[in-house]
Amino acid sequence: MQQTSSDRHEYPAHWEADVVLRDGGTARIRPITVDDADRLVSFYEQVSDESKYYRFFAPYPRLSAKDVHRFTHHDFVDRVGLAATVGGEFIATVRYDRISADGRAASAPADEAEVAFLVQDAHQGRGVASALLEHIAAVARERGIRRFAAEVLPANNKMIKVFTDAGYTQKRSFEDGVVRLEFDLEPTDRSLAVQRAREQRAEARSVRRLLVPGSVAVVGVGRSPGGVGRSVLDNIRDAGFTGGLYAVNKAFPEERKDLDGVPAYRSVRDIEGPVDLAVVAVPVEHVPEVVTECGEHGVQGLVVVTAGYAESGPEGRERQRELVRHARTYGMRIIGPNAFGVINTAADVRLNASLAPEMPRPGRIGLFAQSGAIGIALLSRLHRRGGGVTGVTGVSTFVSSGNRADVSGNDVLQYWYDDPDTDVALMYLESIGNPRKFTRLARRTAAAKPLVVVQGAGSAPQGHAVRATRLPHATVSALLRQAGVIRVETITELVDTGLLLARQPLPGGPRVAIVGNSESLGLLTYDACLSEGLRPLAPLDLTTAATAADFHRALSEALADEACDAVVVTAIPAVGEGPAEDAALAEALRSAAAAAPGKPVLVVHVELGGLAEALSAAMSTAPQAVSKREDPQLPAERPPTAEAERTVTGVPASEGGGLIPAFPAAERAVRALAEAVKYAQWRREATDPGRVPEFEDIDEKGAAGLIGGLLARGQGLTLGVDDTCDLLGKYGVDVHRALPAPTPDSAAEAARTLGYPVALKATAPHLRHRADLGGVRLDLADEDQLRRAYAELGELFGTPEELRPVVQRMAPRGVDTVVRAVIDPAAGAVLSFGLAGAASQLLGDTAHRLVPVTDREAGSLVRSIRTAPLLFGWRGSTPVDTPALEELMLRVSRLVDDHPEVVAVTLEPVVVAARGLSVLGASVRLAPPPARDDLGPRTLPVY
Q1: Which tens digits make up the pLDDT trace of 136-169?
Q2: Regarding beta strands 79-86 and 89-99, do their DSSP bridges make them parallel or antiparallel, or are they unpaired?
Q3: In 181-252, which residue ranges form alpha helices assigned H by DSSP?
Q4: What is the DSSP letter of 853?
Q5: For position 392, what pLDDT does the model report?
Q6: Sheet of 170-175: strands edge to edge?
Q7: Which residues contact 154 (CB under 8 A, 6 or more apart)?
């Protein structure tokens, strides 16, 4: 779309965005242009007289030609209009006009604008105005506007509520029968909280429309058995789907009315009732036609199992992008394409819209996988482990997103966050498309329920331009753990950990009791606990002669011991034991665990299938699941009810206690327990995460002005010494200046300026921060020593041009450290800390925290490196001033968090003395901030 030549700015394409509305549908927000005259007139004709009156404060039945011109011609600076569209047509508009202090039209530097909305009556109540306000506010801030004013009739309660609920700092006045609202556009904690809450509700509802449909149409159903479409139809029907089900194929004869009892139609348009979800399984060339039919019929969402998109090459990638654009035009969201499907085991839904021939057992675990193959593996392992081996824990919902062109793991997390049927979330992620948002959502979700993640090392889903991280894999894992994510390495660990967390309470600490009838298996478990950082108690060997009563007594005593936080029971079969003995032992363990429901219990068994099945039977009292297909090789399905399982918070859901998970190897049980211990510790600490301190001496506005002036010189730059010191100084970071010394005389003059003693340093790239190579001379007390040191460096390393020598005032002795902050493309803003020197670099002994860092996180950052004892008086050395070091890191964190233009800060070395510290070297890099980031208005990603 183009504006006329008289417009002052080109069309701002980066203002275009797809958004999820309150009801879960989508709309597109974009600037209004001169090409929109007809759309604007059509839109206005569909607005009620009452809404027109509220907008113009008088009867206004139609727009004049002058009105249309004014509302479609914008300069995108002082006059801006945005429209929300569905199906290419306007459903709402918003505009601002920059005004002066007396309310007249103005240009910059005036920083106030008048704002007005108009929403079509049919779309009021969907949150359209709230979404438009977020976006027009972001546009205004980008254009230098800091405050909005709006005049609203007192009876227009809906629009007044839009403004008052937004969370901005505002004031209200009443004059001449009109309410005047004025509010600052600077985001506040409340406005961000409101925005995040709206985002969560909207995205959760958009996923709910896909997972809890009232009716489903499968498009592309073959007339004969076999094929993808027919298989999905059969799976939905056989699972006992509780809603309406329709088979669609344009090749059906006109006289055909059903297919194996399912109503059959030639087109979605022919279906008389509403269709909430369409599963698309037609050849790729026919998908656009199906999307159009679904959109025009009012379908709410699509599961596209058809392949031939981004995974097939450049043409398929463009085809995939067009698919998303096409679906969003009608307000629909997509799972896929190339998807395996979705499953919801809730009794009032029973949806198996996937290629899985069996409906998983109902349970409390949510599953997400991008890959269909991984999804199959997860379902299969949970089926085996969850029924007949270790109990009857099953799945609540399952999503396999395929190419993940639209709905992603972030969306599913939003749904699981307040889903009452999901207690534990398991995710296999090949990539994280929006890491900052994922980290934010993960932190919030993990505070309520466990989130276990395997992050594959493979490439991103086809068609995604996922930003590559510059951080090591271990660092990314550590950052995810800080957000509460339980990060595991394999699918086996994913299932092991998920089953434990779904069945048992969180441990209160790392102390583990070990009881069993095998000394060697007990010792293996003991060693595994030590390897995982747990604190095992001495194993209690009951001997191979132990009876079920002996196990019951030993487990009861261990659970009653205040020095124990969890119990691992090890069991091997005795010669001649049969099902009766297995059942007795299972009941003994169950009853003992039920008497002390606050501590987790795990069983390690060796080739003891009978006990595992007995444990399953002992815990399950629910009726067998309804299924039209039976696998003779699998045990009967016995799904647990909510009362049959214990919640992850440690409170028993019933007097019967929780399911006791059994593991075939001690290492697997202990590894899962160790993850639960670390997660429980994170949960306890998350209740008091600390605070981001406010430093009174920080000059945020002064720093912003300096940054703006520096960036005006170019797109990105590394600051010079003076600018670096000035910028850091505005955040209370004092840098010891180093004066250049290109000649011996200039070195002597610099030393006289700074005052003796001084240090002489070579700053050439190959010698910088490498005292071990001899490029530094310290404690030079006078000019003679300085000139001798200067000559020595020249003899060793070359000319002054090669050395780039500098002179710096000596700092008090201490421990040399490094503080860095970077904006990683994938992880976001990261603060790093370590000791200076080659040894720490070679060992990778660096710790990291996500910005903004709290005071508690700064303290843990200092103590989390392996060489931290050097800061606290190791082997009789003097402890250094770690509080000063923590304050320095908090100031750097604030700088990076307050100013997204600061993309890299390095302080090296930072010499931490017994009292105070000295920053001897610093560098800062600036770059223009992104047009939109995770702190901006709600928007769906575009791949």
Answers
A1: 999 999 899 999 999 999 999 888 888 888 888 8
A2: antiparallel
A3: 189-211, 228-238
A4: P
A5: 59
A6: 17-20, 26-31, 79-86, 89-99, 112-119, 147-152, 178-184, 170-175
A7: 160, 174, 177, 178, 179
d(CA 883, CA 917): 10
What pLDDT is stored for residue 631 in this prediction?
Answer: 36
* Dist CA 206 CA 189 (whole Å): 26
Buried b (16+ CB within 10 A) or exposed e, 130-167: bbbbbbbbbbbebbebebbbbebeeebeebbebbeebb
Q: Please name the residues in contact with 317: beta carbons below 8 A apart, sequence gap of 6 or more.
A: 309, 310, 462, 463
φ/ψ of 498, rounded to 5, equals -60, -45
Residue 388: name the closest of 730, 718, 632, 94 by CA: 632
Instruction: Indicate if the alpha-carbon torsion angle 784, 786, 792, 795 is positive or negative.
Output: negative
Question: How many other C-beta atoms can be found within 10 angstroms of the C-beta atom of residue 244?
Answer: 17
Cβ partners under 8 Å of residue 270, min gap 6: none
Phi, psi of 939, deg, nearest 5: -160, 145
Cα distances from 763 to residues 54, 128, 707, 757, 806, in angstroms, run 68, 57, 26, 19, 7
In whole angstroms, what is the distance from residue 927 CA to residue 218 CA? 49
Place of tokens 């001449």: 176
Give the tokens for residue 322: 């067009």
How is residue 374 written in tokens? Answer: 């991984």
Q: Identify the band that residue 224 occupies on the pLDDT scale cut at 50, 70 and 90.
A: confident
Q: Which two tokens stand for residue 650?
A: 């440690």
**What angle do helix axes 579-595 and 548-560 make, rounded to 10 degrees?**
20
**Residue 462 banded pLDDT, cuts 50, 70, 90:** low
Statement: residue 870 has pLDDT above 50? yes
Do you find a cis peptide bond into 852, omega within 30 degrees of 0?
Answer: yes
SS3 247: strand
| Strand partners of residue 18 | 28
pLDDT of residue 534: 97
DSSP for 631-677 reads -TTSPPP-PPPGGGS--TTS--SSTT-----EESSHHHHHHHHHHHH
Rounded Cα distance, 460 and 919, in Å:
41
Q: Do residues 510 and 686 lie in contact, with contact meaning Cβ atoms separated by under 8 Å?
A: no
Q: What is the DSSP string of 558-583?
A: HHH-TT-SEEEEEE-PPTT--HHHHH
Q: In what order do the strands lie in the sheet with 776-780?
A: 738-740, 805-809, 758-762, 776-780
Q: What is the pLDDT of residue 606?
A: 76
The answer to whether the pTM exceeds 0.85 is no
Rounded CA-CA distance 522/518 in Å is 6
List the alpha helices (DSSP H) in 418-547: 435-446, 473-482, 491-503, 519-531
Question: Residues 637-678: pLDDT tens digits?
Answer: 333 333 333 322 232 333 334 688 889 899 999 999 999 999
Are 338 and 393 spatial neighbours (Cβ–Cβ below 8 Å)?
no
Q: Say whether 300 sits in a helix, a strand or coil.
A: coil
| Coil, strand or helix at 203 | helix
Separation of alpha carbons 793 and 804, rounded Å: 11
CA distances from residue 13 to 270, 347, 367 in whole angstroms, order as listed = 38, 46, 36
Q: What is the DSSP letter of 762?
A: E
Q: Which of 341-355, 625-639, 793-807, 838-852 has the lowest mean pLDDT?
A: 625-639
